[in-house]
Amino acid sequence: MLSGFTPPYTPSCRSSLVPAPPWHYAGQVMSLAFQIDREAGQSLLPDRFGAATGSAACHFCEWQSTTDGSELLDPIYAQYKEFFVLLEADRGGTRAFYCPFIYVDQDMPMVRGWLQGLPKKFGSVWMTRSYDLDHPAAAPLCERYALWREPIREGSPLGRSDDQTQWRGRRAHRLPCYADLRTCGITDTDRQAKRRRKKTCSHGCRADD
């Protein structure tokens, strides 16, 4: 008898791309809050969802996930990177977020997101890692806080920022962080072919039968 939480279904059910819940997550996130044009934000919200407030956020994430800990022994099934955008809306006096775009670099979290109603697509996201070492390559924390990000789509930078803020009344840190986003899978055939020449997205699947 074939079984499994998601395809492919097999007698042992161990080939399912996504295992059954619970799903546990840990990771590092770089979050950016910003303002957008309300009319532009409203155009991305579903009908009757609410009124765009003009506030938005995006998150660059490096995740590690597991169900029962077994995935941690084979990290390709546990680790992935993700980028997503959230738009704030007013729903009759209650604020809520809507996610119009979200990209991941592994097939497992993409399908898992589809099961939760998230519009996930394949992309490539990179973040500078900070290590607690006194070394030029470690990107260590220090007294000043800074963010560095450069999302890229179709090989072209969408924006670049190196923001530094000195906080009052509290210790501030410098967190160097680089983020690189490349998207895949739009409908225009010519642009798809161009993107495939620039980047090949590959992903594996687990099989036991």
What do you see in this structure?
This protein is mainly beta and 209 residues long. It has one domain: Beta Barrel (Acetoacetate decarboxylase-like), CATH 2.40.400.10. It is built from 3 helices and 10 strands. The chain has helices spanning 38-43, 107-115, 189-198; strands at 24-35, 51-66, 79-91, 94-104, 120-127, 145-149, 152-153, 156-157, 161-165, 179-183. The strands form 3 sheets. The protein has a 6-stranded mixed beta sheet with strand order 1-2-3-4-5-10. A two-stranded antiparallel ribbon has the order 6-9. The longest helix is centred in the last third of the chain and has 10 residues, at 189-198. The two termini are 13 Å apart. 16% of the residues are buried. The model is unreliable at 149-209 (pLDDT under 50).
Provide mean pLDDT, rounded. Answer: 74
Low-confidence stretches: 149-209
CATH superfamily, by name, is: Acetoacetate decarboxylase-like
Helix content: 10-25%
Order of helices and strands: EHEEEHEEEEEEH
Radius of gyration over all CA atoms, rounded: 20 Å
Topology, please?
Layout: E1 24-35, H1 38-43, E2 51-66, E3 79-91, E4 94-104, H2 107-115, E5 120-127, E6 145-149, E7 152-153, E8 156-157, E9 161-165, E10 179-183, H3 189-198
Parallel strand pairs: 4-5
Antiparallel strand pairs: 1-2, 2-3, 3-4, 5-10, 6-9, 7-8
What's this model, at a glance?
By secondary structure, this protein is mainly beta. It has 3 helices and 10 strands; from the N terminus they run βαβββαββββββα.
Keywords:
209 residues, two-stranded antiparallel ribbon, six-stranded mixed β-sheet, Acetoacetate decarboxylase-like, 10 strands, mainly beta, 12% helix
